[in-house]
Amino acid sequence: MRTKFFTLLAVFALAGSAVLVTAARPAGGSITGKVTFTGTPPKMKPIDMSKEPYCQKLHNPPIKTQDVEAGPGDTLEDAVVFISAGDQGSAPASTPVRYDQKGCQYIPHVAVMMVDQPLQIYNNDPNAHNIHPLPKVNSEWNKSQPPGAPPIDTKWDKPEFISVKCNIHPWMHGYFVVLKTSHYGTTGADGTYTIKDVPPGKYTLTAWQEHMGTQTQEVTVSGGAATANFTFKAMPY
Amino acid sequence: MALAKKITRNLMLAAFGVALATPCVAFAQDTGASVNGLTGNAEAGKRDYRRWCVGCHGKEGNGEGENAPYVDPRPRDFTEALFRWRSTPTGTLPTDQDLYDTITRGVVDTLMPTWRPLTPQTRVDLIAYIKTFSPKWQTQKAGTPITIPPEPPQTIDSVLHGRQLFDQMQCWKCHGPEGRGDGPSAITLTDDKGQPIPPYNFHDGTRFRCGETNSDLYKIFMTGLDGTPMPSFADSLKPQDAWDLVHFLRTLQPNVQSESRNVWLEYVKTHQGQIKPIGAESAGQ
Amino acid sequence: MNSHSPSKMTNRVVAAVPALILLAAVLFPAPKPANAIPAFARKYGLPCSACHIGWPELNNFGQVFRDNGYQMMNERDSPITRDPSYFPITVRITPQWHRESANNQIVDNVPGGGTDSGTHPGTLTTDGFDLSGLDLWFAGTLYKNISFSVLPSSDSTASFHFENAFVRFDNLLHSSWLNFKVGKFELDLPVSEKRLLTLSGDGGFYYIYHFTPLNDANPFGGIGDNQLGMELGGHNANSYTRYTFAALSSVDGNVGLTYSNGQAAGRTFDYYGHFEQGFNTFGNGFMKVGAYGYFGYAPTFFQTSNTTPIYGRGNKPFSRTGLEWKWYFNKWLVKGVYLHGSDNAFLANGIAANSGPLPPGLRAAKWNGGFVEGQYIISPQWIIIARWETVHMAQQADPSITAGDTGNLNAFTIANRWYPFMFSRAGLALQQEYSFVRSNGVTNQGGAFGTLCTDAGRVFNCTISSSSLMFGFDFDF
Question: Rounded distance, CA B79 to CA B62, Å?
Fold first, then answer.
């Protein structure tokens, strides 16, 4: 009788601890770091928007091209850092990513999203734009968006770095970064990024900057904040 | 009796031979193409491609044939599976009929000739072979052709509404207010390969690269020309609007006889000074 | 040009085709058909194989290009659409080694001894390296829908003549059915002789296009000769349906208002018409059938001034009519042409029309002939050709000639043609060819030969066989 009771208790305890183990994950770690460069990057040039006077008036002095957005301390903005190997699975994202065309500029310059995540493209200008992504792996398309038109709803079904342009305004240039993982971060004006909710483990991180290419690094997360800094070699062209 | 036996034996041998040959034919048809009841054979298409297409389109179908550097516009790169003249929405593959029509019609104002002198079977075989140049044909199906509603009458109201749309959609930014291909953005336009590409000049042109009819014109801006700066307006224009725009565009073509142009010229005669120039109301220009 | 001998010969000599085959092969070696033009390949960025089954023979795509007036009809045809440095010129010639042989030729019993030493019929063979004639061809468009061609062509001694020179007004009234050509040009023959794939002395032309019966005085050299005149022609979009109608001066294409033998011309018009219809057969097959007819006149006496002939009179008619059939499928091309020839009795017997009524019994000369040619197109760079041709006299002009096959002819040609490269700038073909022709009945050989082949009753039963073997390097730029 007592053996039976203790056996049952043991079974329940085991089951319970199993539930506890699976339910209560260890505290999610994170990865942060800074993306910088050495050497001299190409000079960014002011954009002549005289072909679209409305946009030209908005940007006085004119904004500069955004191939390399260098900040103080040789930091890089709009670099994307993401887990490229070792990821233990990411839930698909359903929150739409918003991409704006405002003042004849793409905001954000680089939009990061997961495969099949909804993407909504807005035209906030009183002039027409056309959105012309140039993927090689995904299917290329080209849609017109006149002023006042509803947002374009779309998504990408394969991971890729897709450059985007507007044919009417040839200076407009941006990126869709489509990833398989939800563990990614984009560097801000200070060159730092943060990837949150990373389970402990060993990962390969990849940093991508549109002009300088990619770099990889191994990083181990053990519940706290792991650090991974990237330094790109810049060339003046 | 002996003769009947001989005939039977020969027939059976012949049937056996056909049976042996058939799997080879079937095996060759990986991607397959079918137009007007004809089925394309990629093996036969490969031989035909070597005879007719390889000089411009290249052995690997990448548009880098030996003549490509001297050809303007450049030949199509089939490895990208990106086609301009389709009946399917932007971002989707064309139908076999679309490809067949392009080969048959040729492309005016380029060095792509009309291949109508080739037999229909040869043209379908070529399509089957062209599809082997890109893996996209294996993973994606062709798009669903857009529905083109019947064309409404070419009235002045339709033309005037089309003119309004031409202004609002800012087509003139590239095509110019008179459709001469001289809009403010025209000179900066490049295709996917970075080659300069001029927008269509309605004033001088009589044919389009994808046809000559009003329906062909409808399809151009309702499916977009993938691989070029010309986008699809399917999200911004209702079918009725699209037909109105077609009718207006015809008024820009003095070398093409059209009811729309006649109606428009009549209107211009009686409404001098009441017609606002295109582009006046848009942002600045 | 098909710079073989028949177009240059006198009519007497033409009648003795077999003997002259050997002579011609020695004097004017290797006829060389013309029309393959890398200048078009350069202009449009296409390899030669796009328009030619194997150059110079056209496929249907090339036929449409030609019917359009050397235009692709894509608004890129006018010279202004080309870089100014583009010039529409092509040169073609065929250096070769060849061997010509003919039997029943006059052979001196003692070499160098002449007829005094006596003669006997024997086989004469000669061989060696040689040149063909040269074609220098300019063709293309002067303007949109106005095309032209000028083809100075020489024999192997660089003696030039104009093989063709014409201007053509294309797509009149915006219709492909109305095209008007003026000048000297090849007739729209059922199978073009200028685009022949065989080049040897005995195999480099179609006999039915030039055949004239024995003793026939008709100076007409055959429908294979390029003619001077005007032509109205038309075709549908893919050239499955085609027609031409030509009105030509009765000079057999010769300039100076004379025939090539110097004979004054008769101020008449010859007429030629041709109609073709093509249709698809199973698979990628394509078949064409057609009919043609040449109706001409030649003078039998002349208006003279101080006995010098000024122009011909007593024009009598002749005709060459027939049917054609072509079938292309997979790697095979088979063609057949049938010809029926008829020369008026005055022409056929060499009798002037003002010499009174015809002697009783003399008749028109009539013959039937044709060829069947098969080509196995292994690839655009390798073609095997085989052809059998025959001409049979149906009615001898001279009823005293009783041998039914006198003047008949049978020819067989086989050739292998390989193109080491298939390109858009220039071409080279390596040709190996053997041709054999047998002709029945000859005349005017005289001497011992005469006793062999003639008798008092004018029965001709002498057969001459001739053969050519050729290894040629046919190139053009």
Answer: 6
HSE, side-chain direction, 13 A CA sphere, residue A154:
22
For residues C420 and C54, give the distance between their C-alpha atoms in angstroms, rounded to a whole number.
Answer: 12
Please provide the average confidence, as pLDDT, over all residues in chain B: 88
Size of interface A-B (CB pairs under 8 A): 89
CA atoms within 13 A on the CB side of C445: 28
d(CA B81, CA B58): 15
Question: How far apart (Å, rounded) are the C-alpha atoms in residues B79 and B61?
Answer: 6
Neighbours of C212 (CB within 10 A): 26
ipTM, two decimals, is 0.86
B246: closest CA among B153, B159, B156?
B159
Bridging pattern class, strands C89-93 and A192-198: unpaired
Which chain A residue lies closest to B80 (C-alpha atoms)? A136
Q: What's the distance, CA A176 to chain centroid? A: 8
Most distant CA pair in chain A, distance: 91
**Coil, helix or strand for A132?**
strand
Cα distance between residue A236 and residue C414, in whole Å: 69
Of chain C, the percentage scoring pLDDT greater than 90 comes to 66
Euclidean distance between CA atoms A112 and A209, whole angstroms? 12
Contact list, B185 vs chain A (CB under 8 Å): 51, 167-170
- Whether B93 shows a pLDDT value over 80: the answer reads yes
Which residues does B283 contact at the CB level (< 8 Å), separation at least 6?
A: A52, A53, A54, A55, A125, A126, A127
Q: Which of C37, C253, C309, C42 is nearest to C149 (CA)?
A: C37
DSSP assignment string, chain B: -HHHHHHHHHHHHHHHHHHHHHHHHHHH-SS--EETTEE--HHHHHHHHHHHTHHHH-TTSSS--TTGGG-SSPPP-GGGT--SS-SS-TTSBPPHHHHHHHHHH--TTSS----TTS-HHHHHHHHHHHGGG-THHHH-PBPPPPP-PPPPP--HHHHHHHHHHHHHTTTHHHH-TTSSS--TTGGG-B-TTS-B-PPP-TTT-SSBTTBSSHHHHHHHHHH--TTSS--B-TTT--HHHHHHHHHHHHHT-TTS--HHHHHHHHHHHH-TT-PPPTTSSSS--
Place of tokens 């019994």: C361
Q: Return the structure tokens found at A114.
A: 């997961």
**Residues linked to residue A215 through DSSP beta bridges, in sequence order:** A207
The two three-digit tokens of residue A228, written as one number? 């991974």
pTM (2 decimals)? 0.87
Euclidean distance between CA atoms C291 and C337, whole angstroms: 9
Q: Is the peptide bond before A61 cis (omega within 30 degrees of 0)?
A: yes
Which residues lie below 8 Å from residue B193, measured CB to CB, with a gap of 6+? B74, B77
Q: Is the pLDDT of residue C126 over 60?
A: yes
Q: Does C359 touch chain B (CB under 8 A)?
A: no
Gap between the Cα atoms of B52 and B55, Å rounded = 7
User: Which residue of C lies nearest to B39 if distances are taken between CA atoms?
Assistant: C283
Length of chain B: 285
Nearest C-alpha of chain C: how many angstroms from B242? 28
Chains A and B touch (3+ CB pairs under 8 A): yes
Coil, strand, or helix at residue C80? Answer: helix
Residue range B20-40, pLDDT digits in tens: 444 444 433 446 899 999 999
**Helices then strands, each counted (H, E), chain C:** 6, 22
* Burial environment of residue B207 by CB neighbours within 10 A (0 to 12, 13 to 18, 19 or more): middle
Chain B adjacent subunits, 3+ CB pairs under 8 A: A, C
d(CA C85, CA B266): 47
User: C33 burial class (0-12, 13-18, 19+ CB within 10 angstroms)?
Assistant: buried
Tokens for A134, please give them.
């140039």
CA-CA distance, B148 to B87, in Å (whole number)? Answer: 10
**Helix (H) or strand (E) segment spanning residue A163:** strand A160-165
Helix (H, G, I), strand (E, B) or coil at C109: coil
Report residue C280 CA to chain centroid gap: 29
Main-chain phi, psi angles of C270, to 5 degrees:
-100, 155
